[in-house]
Design brief:
Layout (H helix, E strand, L loop, with lengths): L11 E6 L11 E6 L10 E9 L10 E4 L11 E4 L4 E4 L3 E7 L2 H14 L5
Antiparallel strand pairs: 1-2, 1-7, 2-3, 3-5, 3-6, 4-5
Length: about 120
């Protein structure tokens, strides 16, 4: 799959091809949040956070961030960012841009990432 003419930027939601996967890794083509800063690195890599369907039991997990479906993010159903599944991927895995999240969601994701890696502030 080839990247479209749009360039991925921090805060964007893109459809990404996560296959092939192993074990409990998140699978298939699904949305993900671009988390890495735009000016980072010389390789065509982006740090992404996969999006999964929302389940009420996620509300108690520090690594799941609720995303309400809306026109700005392009999601069709209420979803969650899964910070435990954060990945660095080649941009060749990006299929198409769906939308973007606002700064408050981006900040929540960064806070959750700090918890996941054991750097609570």
């Amino acid at each position: 799959m080839n990247i479209s003419l749009a360039q991925p930027s921090r805060g964007d939601i893109w459809l990404i091809n996560f296959d092939p996967t192993i074990g409990a890794e998140i699978k298939k083509v699904r949305p993900a949040l671009i988390l890495s800063i735009d000016s980072l690195g010389i390789l065509p890599l982006k740090v992404v956070v996969p999006v999964t369907g929302w389940h009420t039991e996620f509300a108690n997990n520090a690594w799941h961030i609720f995303l309400a479906a809306d026109d700005s993010n392009g999601l069709q159903k209420n979803s969650a960012l899964d910070l435990l599944q954060i990945k660095s991927l080649d941009t060749q895995r990006l299929v198409k841009k769906m939308g973007a999240v606002d700064q408050s969601i981006l900040k929540e994701a960064l806070k959750a990432l700090l918890i996941v890696v054991g750097h609570e502030s």
